[in-house]
Specification:
Layout: H1 2-49, E1 53-54, E2 59-60, H2 63-69, E3 73-78, E4 85-89, E5 112-114, E6 126-130, H3 149-154, E7 157-161, E8 166-178, H4 191-204, E9 219-225, E10 232-242
Parallel strand pairs: 4-5, 6-9
Antiparallel strand pairs: 1-2, 3-4, 3-7, 5-6, 7-8, 8-10, 9-10
Length: 245
């Protein structure tokens, strides 16, 4: 009888432990889903409040209203037919906006942000934008599809707006690289280094579209994480082409 009681107690303890684990896991999943929802709502509200409108010639943004929300804003990035329709900020480091929304609230989605070392975003030779690859498909998740030429052909031009200008962002390369790759380069000593940089991008790219890129162009490097390894990143490169008003 004692053995039966012991087995019965052990069985109940195991069941309770399993139930506890299930409740805890359910809570964690619900918390993640709530964060995803809140993050998406914030960016939807920001686009509405900043009166973001995508026309044939211009991406219209009420910069005064947008910068009232956050004066770290430097641009708006849009990709037709994808979820990319977000503000881009630049902070004092490369950590703050990793897990903070544009309103400063903690959220794993974070905000798209320019590398803090870039002195003049989108005016120098290479501007790096970082963003998360979210499991709900948001933020920079679409970047992982650029090695598919069918996807590339439908999304080969993004739109980027700054307070000064509107640009087409012509995508010309996509690759998986190390976090220590020499392509994470901002400062260049002369034209020779710029040409070497372009050649290296071409060499490692998974796609080779006919987009001419020269040392005189302005490049945007968009970087996000991969699902495979922590020390790898997916990067997509585009060159800026100013749009006529």
């Amino acid at each position: 009888m004692k053995k039966k009681r012991s087995k019965g107690c052990l069985y109940r303890i195991v069941i309770l432990l399993l139930l506890g684990i299930m409740v805890f896991c359910g809570y964690k999943i619900a918390k993640i889903l709530y964060e995803y929802h809140e993050g998406s709502k914030v960016y939807s509200d920001v686009a509405r409040d900043a009166k973001v409108k995508v026309g044939k010639k211009q991406v219209s943004v009420d910069w005064k209203k947008l910068r009232k929300k956050n004066d770290d804003v430097v641009a708006w990035l849009y990709s037709a037919g994808s979820v990319i329709n977000y503000p881009v900020v630049q902070g004092q480091d490369n950590k703050y906006y990793l897990h903070r929304l544009i309103n400063g609230e903690y959220n794993f989605k974070g905000t798209l942000f320019v590398d803090y070392r870039v002195e003049k975003p989108f005016k120098g030779f290479n501007t790096i934008i970082y963003g998360h690859r979210m499991k709900d498909g948001s933020m920079f998740k679409p970047l992982v599809r650029y090695d598919d030429m069918d996807y590339y052909k439908k999304h080969k031009v993004m739109r980027l707006a700054t307070p000064e200008k509107n640009y087409d962002l012509l995508i010309f390369a996509m690759s998986r690289i190390s976090v220590k790759s020499k392509l994470y380069k901002i400062f260049f000593n002369g034209d020779a280094e710029k040409r070497e940089f372009i050649d290296e991008i071409r060499r490692v790219s998974a796609i080779n579209p006919k987009v001419r890129v020269t040392k005189k162009d302005k490049i945007v490097m968009m970087s996000t994480c991969t699902a495979e390894l922590d020390d790898k990143r997916i990067v997509v490169f585009g060159k800026l082409k100013a749009r006529k008003p």
